[in-house]
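Hello,

I think I submitted the magnesium ion job twice by accident. Can you confirm which output corresponds to this input? Input:
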Amino acid sequence: MRASQFLFATLKETPSDADIVSSQLMVRAGLIRKLASGLYVWLPMGLKVLQKVERIVREEMENIGAQEVLMPMTQPAELWQESGRFEDYGPELLRFTDRHNRDFVLGPTHEEVITDLARGELRSYKQLPVTFFQIQGKFRDEIRPRFGIMRAREFTMKDAYSFHVDQESLEVTYQQMYDAYTRIFQRLGLNFRAVLADTGSIGGSASHEFHVLAGSGEDAIAFSDGSDYAANVELAEAVCTDERAAPTQERQDVATPKIQTNEDLAKFLDIPLETTVKTLVVKGHRINEDGSEGEEQLVALVVRGDHTLNEVKAEKIAEVATPLTFATEEEMKAAGLKKGFIGVDLDIPVYVDRAAAAMSDFVSGANEYDMHTTGMNWERDAQITEVVDIRDVVEGDASPDGKGTLSIKRGIEVGHIFQLGDKYSKALNCTVMGEDGKPVTLMMGCYGIGVSRIIAAAIEQNHDDNGIIWAKTPDIKDSIAPFDIAIVPMKSKEDTVMQTAEALYEELKAKGLNVILDDRNERPGVKFADLELIGIPHRIVVSDRNLAEDKYEYVDRREGEKQLLSREEVLAKVS
Ligand code: ATP
Ligand code: MG
Ligand code: MG
Ligand code: MG
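Support: Only one job matched these inputs. Its output is below.
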């Protein structure tokens, strides 16, 4: 590829609405552009990265015999009514009607569609086990889209579904998937952990999540130094005897609104100071390491938006706040609320349930707290105070299996595998003829990977002040950098510089390497800054001065040191 013919959409300034390092760098490096909240355009530079991740995922799926399909993103509501999820799924499911007044949803996941396919296509136990997968756009109307493509509303997922005559067969495929996921994240060069996950409302017997470790992760995962025990904290908490377990591992603070005064609140909501608005303010105390009570801080701010807050403002809050999802859509409707009920959770998601009781009272109006309804008075609102013990009690505790002590790290959920059992096959009556000639209801597994989220997670894990650093992959062919090598010819009166650069470019291309020739009419400083921002792993500069000595200037993005190398040495570095 020639850079003069390729869209370099790099930005010097950090976009004001990009909230963590990966989203800032992805926008600045020209990989993505925001279209609207939670919706992103993949620019040519970013799409290359996305397709490289897809390739590795696809290879590992095919490697375990999974067959690729492509299902529509638009799904008829009837299937969701059959499984019961049309009602159960909640507001993340985007429902809409077509011109004939038929109900549809935009697929957040595809259990219903694949089960419908299976009941139509699979006849006999002899066809089983079978696994289908797809790599496709999903839509989830996330209440708070944030962190760029990490928590988007439309995003790319690899989702796979397996069908079996019995639990034993399901377990075999589940283990193959577990191993395939492990290989995918290893090939990507990521620092990750597989952890036990809650099987929650779905039931089923086993579930694992795969987390990329990063301080900005939204999940807390606990692992033991004395055994293989690793779980996401929700689960570790459930099995720890100490129910106060509430880790407060530092995480990179993101867009936390600094609201101290009425003026701050009015400014934040973008409304005049005199506006009538119902707010519930929940404050708590940090507990210091020595057990003493620490600084008071804002825990949650709930704005009841059925008054003067219009939807736009509610949305503005949703953009910067972690919403509390304890109220269902029905509850909100019952309380006469539309969209404007949003909570702000500052940085300790785990103990939100404790504040939640007070807040759901507030929302339902069951308990009239001392609410301020005429103008905002921060001091008075602050009377509604919950003192919450947020002491970190999991860290250092013994684990649930009695071996070793637990440590807590932040993780980004990039994959999730699940033994579903017969939940969907039963609801949709998905059976085949069994060995004994009688119909058997199939057992199912489902397996997701956040293909687009992986990119943000990789950047969270590897970057510096100058930009992205793509992880070193065990095999250079698995690198997900948009280009692996950049050749930069310096301006010269002689043709030899350009000719040499062109020849090297052709040679590397012929070797199957992913190389870009930076022939843009830009100053070298601009080119170097762009290449560092985008994270191109290898940079080769061709100049008059060095050519006179038959040398090339070479820089490894991960090391940063300039080296003067012979042609052979350069070739050895990049292949
Ligand atoms: P999360 O806990 O982050 O909301 P999830 O548990 O709802 O994720 P799953 O239903 O397990 O997600 O979906 C499989 C994978 O899809 C997740 O492991 C994650 O990597 C990815 N994913 C889920 N939601 C999003 C999103 N809004 N944006 C990007 N990727 C996502
Ligand atoms: Mg989710
Ligand atoms: Mg999750
Ligand atoms: Mg999940």
